[in-house]
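Morning. Coffee machine broken again, so started the prediction first thing and wrote up yesterday's gels while waiting. Chain of 172 residues, entered below exactly as on the submission form.
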Amino acid sequence: MTIQELKQKFDEIYGFDLADRSRKREMVDARRVYCKIAFSLNYNFRQIGESINRKHCNIIHLINTVEQATNIHKKIHDDLVKEYNFLTKVFNVDIVESFENKVLQQRNEKTAFLINEINNVLIKWDNQSLKNFLQTRVNTYNKLINATKPQKQIEKIKGAKLNRKVKNPVLC
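Came back before lunch.
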């Protein structure tokens, strides 16, 4: 497949010309996918750049940042790779999305279970106790959570071996 044929195929799929100077997200992601596939077909940066009116440094950047493309564009990439048997890595967006959905569903089930347990306890309380609990516990705890910043994780750095114990856990 020539680079002109590939560009025409992308223009048909997306419905706009990849050579346009627009910086809209949809157009940039389409150019990312185009550059990745063209590069996998052994076209050099200059040839790819000339086909879409860009310099070679822009092509290098688009190829290096192809992971930032949205899932819609990654699916188009995967479909084209499968259709034309291009020798390039596929993103497997469907597998990633199904895994994320499973994790989210499990989390929702656990959350629903905890909320149900809390409701079972609160149903037995009278109105005055509920108001008191809401004012003294729930509202203050909610303010605390909203104001709290996440703790920084200290990375353990491998360094020189020490002959004696050090009190600082970062140096261990």
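The radius of gyration is 27 Å. Going to sketch it on the whiteboard this afternoon.
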